[in-house]
Amino acid sequence: MPAESPFQTQRDAAAERRGPVTAATIIIIIIIIIIMAPAGAKKGILERLDAGEVVIGDGGFVFALEKRGYVKAGPWTPEAAAEHPEAVRQLHREFLRAGSNVMQTFTFYASDDKLENRGHTQTFTGQQINEAACDLAREVADEGDALVAGGVSQTPSYLSCKSQDDVKATFKKQLDVFVKKNVDFLIAEYFEHVEEAEWAVQVLKTTGKPVAATLCIGPEGDLNGVSPGDCAARLVKAGAQIVGVNCHFDPDTSVKTVKMMKEGVEKAGLKAHYMCQPLAYHTPDCNCQGFIDLPEFPFSLEPRILTRWDMQKYARDAYDAGIRYIGGCCGFEPYHVRALAEELAPERGFLPAGSDKHGNWGSGLEMHTKPWVRARARRDYWEKLKPASGRPLCPSMSMPDSWGVTKGHADLMQQKEATSQEQLKALFDKANKGQ
Amino acid sequence: MPAESPFQTQRDAAAERRGPVTAATIIIIIIIIIIMAPAGAKKGILERLDAGEVVIGDGGFVFALEKRGYVKAGPWTPEAAAEHPEAVRQLHREFLRAGSNVMQTFTFYASDDKLENRGHTQTFTGQQINEAACDLAREVADEGDALVAGGVSQTPSYLSCKSQDDVKATFKKQLDVFVKKNVDFLIAEYFEHVEEAEWAVQVLKTTGKPVAATLCIGPEGDLNGVSPGDCAARLVKAGAQIVGVNCHFDPDTSVKTVKMMKEGVEKAGLKAHYMCQPLAYHTPDCNCQGFIDLPEFPFSLEPRILTRWDMQKYARDAYDAGIRYIGGCCGFEPYHVRALAEELAPERGFLPAGSDKHGNWGSGLEMHTKPWVRARARRDYWEKLKPASGRPLCPSMSMPDSWGVTKGHADLMQQKEATSQEQLKALFDKANKGQ
Amino acid sequence: MPAESPFQTQRDAAAERRGPVTAATIIIIIIIIIIMAPAGAKKGILERLDAGEVVIGDGGFVFALEKRGYVKAGPWTPEAAAEHPEAVRQLHREFLRAGSNVMQTFTFYASDDKLENRGHTQTFTGQQINEAACDLAREVADEGDALVAGGVSQTPSYLSCKSQDDVKATFKKQLDVFVKKNVDFLIAEYFEHVEEAEWAVQVLKTTGKPVAATLCIGPEGDLNGVSPGDCAARLVKAGAQIVGVNCHFDPDTSVKTVKMMKEGVEKAGLKAHYMCQPLAYHTPDCNCQGFIDLPEFPFSLEPRILTRWDMQKYARDAYDAGIRYIGGCCGFEPYHVRALAEELAPERGFLPAGSDKHGNWGSGLEMHTKPWVRARARRDYWEKLKPASGRPLCPSMSMPDSWGVTKGHADLMQQKEATSQEQLKALFDKANKGQ
Amino acid sequence: MPAESPFQTQRDAAAERRGPVTAATIIIIIIIIIIMAPAGAKKGILERLDAGEVVIGDGGFVFALEKRGYVKAGPWTPEAAAEHPEAVRQLHREFLRAGSNVMQTFTFYASDDKLENRGHTQTFTGQQINEAACDLAREVADEGDALVAGGVSQTPSYLSCKSQDDVKATFKKQLDVFVKKNVDFLIAEYFEHVEEAEWAVQVLKTTGKPVAATLCIGPEGDLNGVSPGDCAARLVKAGAQIVGVNCHFDPDTSVKTVKMMKEGVEKAGLKAHYMCQPLAYHTPDCNCQGFIDLPEFPFSLEPRILTRWDMQKYARDAYDAGIRYIGGCCGFEPYHVRALAEELAPERGFLPAGSDKHGNWGSGLEMHTKPWVRARARRDYWEKLKPASGRPLCPSMSMPDSWGVTKGHADLMQQKEATSQEQLKALFDKANKGQ
């Protein structure tokens, strides 16, 4: 074994036999386990976290499915759950194989106010999309050791200054589907303002199911400048049992932010579990708005994509910071999640099914035809490598846009009709002036 | 329409109506067209190319499926066709939606000598894998206007100095499946030595089906130093009707190489169609071995991934160079193929189904919530942007490994048993010394 | 006039006539002014600053003379003042021509304890070096409108934990020369610990001459973690009339630090003038030790050198921050100082003599032979340009060494004998382990 | 001795004693040698080269003196020789101390047609400037073991299509001064067209003095596309005993070009000595016009400046390529020349005077106060280091301007009056369109 890992040195005898085990065998074993397990035997999310287990999340669906041709960048809505269920099911399966313990329903931006935005019309109703998403998540979750999490996210209504009642009613409509479909727990995610996240948590708490809440913020705090520590304490007080961040920032920044949250919660004398689902993009140059403000968002982010080795570092950093719910968001592909599961295999005691098609730290390269590629089948090669961009005309960092507008600004108001040419021209002019 | 394209200015009245057409409608239209078409009514590959039509290829399967968890980097073998048909089918479908006119059977490295390599054993036989791959390609090709191409590629037998007869027998075994499954045409691809490619073409020609042949070479020629022009002329003489390159180099380098091939063919008084299926990675720093020699291969290539805008430039460059079969190889995701189809929409007269989830030059961003992102819904924004890597500690170029060993070298010999620890240690030492 | 500057738009009628004025004319005018001025008629440093005038400092001598072959990197001692007076005189003259109002005596590290360090012996005594440096500074200062400043800097004695009396005695020896040579004012510069700087100020104050004090610190404060604001307040209380930073950080970081100092002084209800003499190297990646910790220090800093346009931005930023004593340190060449003087020409009312060989914002290029270079004779060209490194194998940022040792650590102790091979080997091993 | 060099391992016992020798001692020895030598005892340039000795050239004066405030970028004329002789003398001295065996007269662009260009008038006549330059070079050459070389360079007359007689008359005027001042040999340098260089060589040959000729070309050849090999053969046939390149390209490119010249000369059955005086800027991105076409020329080239270690590599590469006259051009500072002399100390048998202020491969750092800097006092540290730019918003390569105009184009015509605003505006427009 050329590529050493904590797992390989610590794992028990049973795992030692893995070498000759094929993917097929692993799947058969998994199926047997599932068949033998009594219905409802899966441990709940809080049971796992209370027991100190690592929970591997999944990756973001809108970016992954945009690249596959099923989601439109701009509206970012999840109608594919109803329109192209085979594509959504396949992505769920890939994350499951990669080691995910949670199948999030593909219900991001599936609130009615968001589905009909700026000229984007839908063939399916919001309810149909939410229901289809629940069914797909449950179907695949049942193929392995995964739970279903129903998710709500920030609403255009809030940005447009609708009342607390209106915003809460929006969450309630999605929640009704989650209750009907009996998801295992709930996530309020991708909130830029802690106030809106509190409202979401308050609504989700009415079900009695466990509630997780993540903000899309960095060390500077939410868009009103509330610090990560204060945000986290407020979310715990609102009823969230798991708090953390998702999206908008890279793993380094996100782990740092969750650490600040943990300090805030502990300083307030509260308790919580911690969760991190960052981008799979390097964003050292972001301001408080995260990658939305980077000039490369959303169509030229490729050079920033994390490697699997970057992901192993993230998994270890998150674990060391006391975070136990470790997943991903935009940019994550199944192999990124697999890297999290491989890094934390010593702690979890097993490798995911998908690792049969990998091998720790590149050990699969032992079978490569070219000898100089076989010479890369080792951990220290990949850990030390500083990958080149192949783009000598490009810089390493960008200056983010910094329009600095937030809730209440005219340009952020929800409108049903498409953006007009006049509206666009005004925006183009404003952007060009800023250069 | 903020984002101008040749298509939008040149397209005919029928296309003009596309605006409000949804993906669903397009699929219905496609289904109607398919139903109405008599069996076998699809135009063959040579009919299309002779008529001057653009043929959009698909992308590489091994890299895409490695990221999804179904292919092992190192052996790079296609057993997933039999093991996980749903994953392979889904990828075919995504390429079809993106605009591909060709479904290549997922039979890369599916020769028997390659399937059993360096300790990598298979649950399925070579015949089972090849058959499953043909069935999947045909199933999805029948869902749209695509042809099925059976593909063979370089063999370990050739590198191990087996006889011409032995090597040809290896190709023949795969070919028997292709004939039985009645693929529409054949591709001999990914050859580093023109001699082996000639042998492959000679075998494939025996079927009477059209034959395409691509080498994985750059402007320096094949690994024996035969120039691209001479390579191409030899392949045409061997019977290939379509010649070009695939894999190993980025689009810029590959288009340049095919231009050299075209000059060679014309200088020899011959005629052919031209084909280009490059990497989706920027490789300005490669030597003659292509991206295999880059230190980032295969696990840290992320910063080199082309954007969709890079792809539009590639499609235009290839078209302008007289290349009409334009596709991709390793690194291509469905959205990369869609970009080719969008760039060449004026020439083809239509957009692919997947463009319903995109919009030319980022016009889908008109529906984004944040006004400064709506300000990016225009061509000149994306064309001018020089995307940052987000990696300030990394360089922009690498020094390739340059072991310079090829056919006949001891380190390249095929062996069934796994690479031993002693063998690995020798390779690691050699690699470290080279640094 | 293609290249616009605030100076050109704001300058008065007299300056408007500058166009056809040659360098010779300017020099003649300067000579006339000098001849007409009564002896001792020059305004003192505090008179100038109290009147709100901009004072342009000079650049660092040790780095400039190291490149010219007269200073040894490592010891960094100023024996060239006695050994090669023509080289030191010439550099003074170049800074004077570039617009400097201050000639600092080349007495950096000219304390006796530093001159005899780790095997570095001297042909001249400390007193001889200090006296020669004073004579040279005075000679050139008298050729223009410049003052002579005698400078002391941090001592090995302090790092080696000598007593306050011992350290003060060290400063006193240099000061005796400054008094004898009647310098115009005094500078305590390049202190890493505010405590040692306070001691220096207390000694310098005994002369009754104006005293400036600069620390080589960034926003994180001195090496004991005392904040810039607190450092500055302590220096003012110790008697310094001018406070600020020099060396160790780039202009962006240094201006930011002086702003923090200003806030600290004002918060303490004190008053002072502010001074900034940063590096001419970009150092966004520094930690609290500044560029000493960068792996490129001191022999591979070239890619970080600021352009003249970067310097104009620095001069403007410093001015806008309320800093009026604006100069430079290591890395500054005469053209860098000239850029400061050109940027602040509107405020000062005149251009330096050296600008006769330049022209604002590249306007001298109007005379270039090649038309595309004449096309660069304009401000917006140079302001927008992002200069390439020409080093595709190099990164844009470095990880600083962070040994984190300071005053009192065994490795920092002064020793007269040369570093032994054993001592060196221990250091090399320690450094390699850290990689 | 931590930093090993070929010199240190190969040098003889006498050199071994160098350790404790101070700069002063070396200078005294040099003075003794000079005093003892009979007048005219210095070996001529051809004697040295015929004997296989290494001749170290000097660096470029226009760029070095531009930074010091005595030359105007744009006209790049050498009036400082008459206007500010102390500055020119000092630079000569620094190159001498650094190890230069040649003092080139500062007569670049000192032809009468160039001195009065586009509104740039002179206080001194061409003859005065040329004479002053000869006197300064001789004065300093006499202080050490250096020869005086009189230099002519390309003329505006040639670009403006003046007759061969006119162009030759221009060279003749400078040559008359060189003969009167009895320089040791002649250099025709910085020619972009081999034809003009041939004319220059023919004129210089009339004196009977040795003639060197260098073109400012790269591997693509002169601006008419004449290959380096053909250029060199033509120059040798015209009478040059030493041929090579200077300016316009970095050391890597220049050594490569001189190798091509050597092959051309040898292929033509001729014999010559070879010479290389490249830029001190990295220019991997240049086209045939060299660094003039880079967008950073001439005011933002800083990030491209070579380190002393880059220079040692250049000296070794040039030596290994059979080049024996090894010097520099624009961008070279004295420490760059010293690096050449240090690298070739084993071949030359001695270190230059200036090395007393350096120490091989950074060994002077043994005396640094900070232990982690002392840990850098070794060759492998500096050889492996990839220096960062400190500029994360900048790329590593540029797209050169490529106006592609040469001799005869209207925009290149000489004109005495200043470039008018209309002319400038036309150029700015043309440049902006090209972006």
UniProtKB/TrEMBL annotation, chains A, B, C, D:
Pfam short name (any one): S-methyl_trans
Keyword Nucleotide-binding: no
PROSITE patterns in the record: HCY
Record's GO cellular component terms: cytosol
Cofactor: Zn(2+)
Cofactor annotation remark: Binds 1 zinc ion per subunit.
Membrane found in the keyword field: yes
One GO biological process term: methylation
Residue ranges of the TM segments: 21-41
Residue ranges constituting the Hcy-binding domain according to the UniProt record: 43-344
Pathway annotation: Amino-acid biosynthesis; L-methionine biosynthesis via de novo pathway; L-methionine from L-homocysteine (BhmT route): step 1/1
A molecular function (GO) term: betaine-homocysteine S-methyltransferase activity
Binding site for Zn(2+): 247, 329-330
UniProt entry keywords in alphabetical sequence: Membrane, Metal-binding, Methyltransferase, Transferase, Transmembrane, Transmembrane helix, Zinc
UniProt xrefs under PANTHER family: BETAINE--HOMOCYSTEINE S-METHYLTRANSFERASE 1, HCY-BINDING DOMAIN-CONTAINING PROTEIN
Protein name as it appears in the record: Betaine-homocysteine methyltransferase
